[in-house]
């Protein structure tokens, strides 16, 4: 209802004392006519006054002692309605200035108070510091106006103790400085009584004790007690141990005493995987621990570099991790990871499929079963045949096969992994064997792995053959790598290839070429043998030829043809072979001999008959 308000309150007014009441009118009905009040800006009177948000009454919030002055304190009060509680309406406001004079009823009623130092606070100064070295800044305040004598403060050190002779204080700024060089070994702790007074009438003052600790000069750097050319410390820990596993403990030395002898440690090199951590002990030693399990097959040893530093300097970044033997703050630590048997042996090729010819000779090596163990100190791996079963593909057998007979068909060397034939396979054509092979290298139970090897018995007419333009001896040395290279390219297509043997090449005219070699092959998909027609389609496709071209060129493959020649073609070739004509000639000579013998017999018989008749006559 007014453009501004003015009020006067004495500085000795009690808490919650009434000062004035603001009255704002709003002609609206409902929430839009309800008025609320708030202090929008208190200025220098911050925290001195409060307003009732409903009635608009302004009261004293805290003591006003020492706040009296000639100029008024200016406040801005806002009145606002609750229009925002009505749909589609907004709150309306109005601000008004309020001036409050605080009357000064006493000449010096404000008592100084010390802000710093706090009660029992300790200041520090380093021993041997030059005279005049700053020690502590005293901070005080007075409720009275600092522009008046009652608010002007002065600082002093009471000479009640002998310690006062070692320090001086600036009477106007409160800065404490040294008056003499301090020796920590002679006296390490001083107690001085500070006094802060104002210049009012009557004069007001306050005192506080300040403790001053003389600090030791830290003039030694920590280092390790090692020779310049000393080797690393050697520790060891088992692999796969949990985090926080103790690796070892060591310590550096510092010739200072007390806190100045405290040492921190930092790994500065050799632990790129963050496998280790350092824990400082109360006596400034250090314990080396793991941060996570370590796999010995990935990391068999570490050589880390540790640096010792003054305690509290770990926040600084240490640049560089090169070990310098002349820097005695560095030490190398060698950590050996001890192997445990935590890996099962594994087959190089799990659940493989191969093929053998129906007429494969006894004691022929048909494949090598290989297994490995990632453990570095693993025991030798033993391979054994656990079970053999036979699966006919195109007919059912009328009589069961004895298990002992099947096991005798194969023999497996338990160390080299050579799988050899042990009998005839004529009765098992067009079927396959499933050989369950077991590998283990531990006496512990269940520390073994199984793999199933499928062995198909295949007729020659169902096989293809690689033709190599190189000698059989050279191909036999490289046939394993050749098969591996092909398998790498066929595997993405879901195909598996097995080469049965390598022999001197017999050409289609039955002539033998000792400068070339032939190797019959069989392909498999999903563990099943692929038919001859499908193999021809795959191997003769332009895409496959292009895919295998570089391997063919590297190993001298000139062609891919049938492993067994068609009989018609074989008969035709026999007619053109020189040896065939010799056989025909021998047959004709034999036939002529028979005819001559028969003719001679007939002539002899006729002669005898003629002679007999002549004698009778």
The helix-and-strand class reads: alpha+beta
In terms of quaternary structure, what is this?
A: single chain
Q: Percent of residues in beta strands?
A: 35-45%
Overall spatial form: elongated
Please tell me the overall pLDDT: 86
Number of helices: 6
In the CATH hierarchy, the architecture of the largest domain is Sandwich
Radius of gyration: 54 Å
Please characterize this protein's 3D structure.
- The protein has 617 residues and is an alpha+beta fold.
- It has six domains: 4-103, Cadherins (Immunoglobulin-like); 113-215, Sandwich (Immunoglobulin-like); 233-338, Sandwich (Immunoglobulin-like), CATH 2.60.40; 346-458, Cadherins (Immunoglobulin-like, Sandwich), CATH 2.60.40; 460-567, 2-Layer Sandwich (Alpha-Beta Plaits), CATH 3.30.70; 579-617.
- The chain is built from six helices and 38 strands.
- The strands form eleven sheets. Strands 33, 34, 35, 36, 37 and 38 form a six-stranded antiparallel sheet that branches. It has a four-stranded mixed sheet with strand order 1-7-6-3, with no helix packed on it.
- Helix 2 (472-490) runs antiparallel to helix 4 (542-555).
- The radius of gyration is 54 Å and the shape is elongated.
- The termini are far apart.
- Mean pLDDT is 86; it is low at 568-577.
- Its main location: membrane.
- It is a single-pass type I membrane protein.
- It is found in: Cell membrane.
């Amino acid at each position: 209802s007014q453009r501004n308000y003015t009020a006067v309150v004495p500085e000795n007014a009690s808490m919650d004392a009434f000062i004035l009441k603001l009255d704002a009118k709003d002609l609206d009905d409902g929430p839009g006519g309800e008025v609320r009040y708030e202090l929008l800006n208190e200025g220098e009177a911050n925290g001195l006054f409060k307003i009732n948000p409903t009635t608009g009454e302004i009261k004293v919030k805290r003591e006003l002692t020492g706040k009296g002055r000639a100029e008024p304190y200016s406040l801005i009060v806002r009145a606002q309605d609750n229009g925002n509680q009505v749909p589609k309406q907004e709150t309306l406001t109005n601000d008004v200035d309020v001036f409050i004079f605080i009357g000064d009823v006493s000449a010096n009623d404000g008592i100084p108070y010390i802000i710093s130092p706090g009660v029992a606070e300790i200041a520090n100064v380093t021993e041997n510091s030059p005279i005049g070295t700053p020690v502590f800044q005293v901070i005080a305040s007075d409720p009275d106006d600092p522009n008046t004598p009652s608010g002007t403060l002065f600082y002093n050190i009471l000479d009640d103790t002998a310690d006062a002779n070692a320090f001086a204080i600036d009477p106007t700024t409160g800065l404490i400085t040294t008056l003499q060089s301090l020796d920590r070994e002679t006296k390490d702790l001083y107690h001085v009584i500070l006094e802060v007074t104002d210049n009012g009438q009557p004069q007001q003052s306050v005192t506080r004790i300040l403790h001053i600790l003389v600090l030791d000069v830290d003039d030694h750097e920590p280092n390790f007690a090692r020779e310049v050319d000393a080797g690393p410390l050697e520790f060891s820990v088992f692999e796969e141990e949990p985090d926080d596993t103790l690796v070892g403990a060591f310590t550096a030395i510092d010739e200072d005493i007390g806190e100045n002898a405290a040492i921190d440690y930092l790994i500065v090199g050799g632990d790129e995987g963050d496998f280790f951590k350092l824990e400082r002990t109360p006596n400034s030693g250090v314990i080396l621990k793991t941060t996570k399990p370590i796999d010995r097959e990935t990391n068999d040893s570490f050589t880390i570099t540790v640096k010792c530093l003054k305690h509290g300097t770990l926040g600084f970044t240490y640049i560089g991790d090169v070990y310098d033997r002349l820097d005695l703050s560095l030490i190398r630590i060698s950590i050996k990871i001890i192997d445990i048997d935590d890996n099962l042996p594994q087959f190089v090729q799990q659940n493989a499929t191969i093929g053998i010819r129906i007429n494969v000779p006894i004691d022929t090596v048909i494949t090598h079963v290989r297994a490995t163990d990632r453990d570095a100190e693993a025991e030798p791996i033993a391979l054994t045949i656990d079970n053999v079963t036979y699966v006919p593909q195109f007919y059912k057998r009328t009589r069961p096969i004895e298990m002992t007979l099947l096991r005798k068909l194969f023999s497996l060397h338990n160390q080299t992994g050579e799988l050899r034939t042990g009998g005839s396979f004529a009765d098992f054509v067009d079927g396959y064997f499933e050989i369950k092979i077991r590998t283990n290298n531990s006496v512990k139970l269940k520390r073994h792995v199984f793999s199933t090897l499928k062995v198909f018995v295949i007729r020659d007419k169902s096989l293809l053959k690689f033709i190599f333009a190189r000698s059989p001896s050279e191909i036999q040395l490289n046939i394993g790598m050749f098969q591996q290279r092909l398998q790498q390219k066929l595997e993405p297509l879901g195909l598996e290839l097995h080469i049965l043997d390598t022999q001197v090449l017999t050409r289609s005219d039955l002539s033998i070429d000792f400068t070339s070699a032939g190797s019959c092959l069989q392909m498999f998909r999903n563990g099943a043998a692929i038919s001859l027609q499908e193999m021809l389609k795959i191997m003769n496709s332009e895409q496959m030829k292009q895919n295998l071209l570089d391997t063919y060129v590297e190993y001298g493959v000139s062609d891919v043809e049938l492993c067994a020649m068609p009989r018609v073609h074989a008969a035709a070739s026999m007619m053109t072979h020189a040896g065939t004509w010799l056989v025909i000639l021998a047959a004709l000579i034999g036939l002529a001999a028979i005819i001559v013998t028969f003719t001679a017999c007939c002539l002899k018989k006729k002669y005898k008959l003629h002679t007999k008749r002549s004698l009778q006559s």
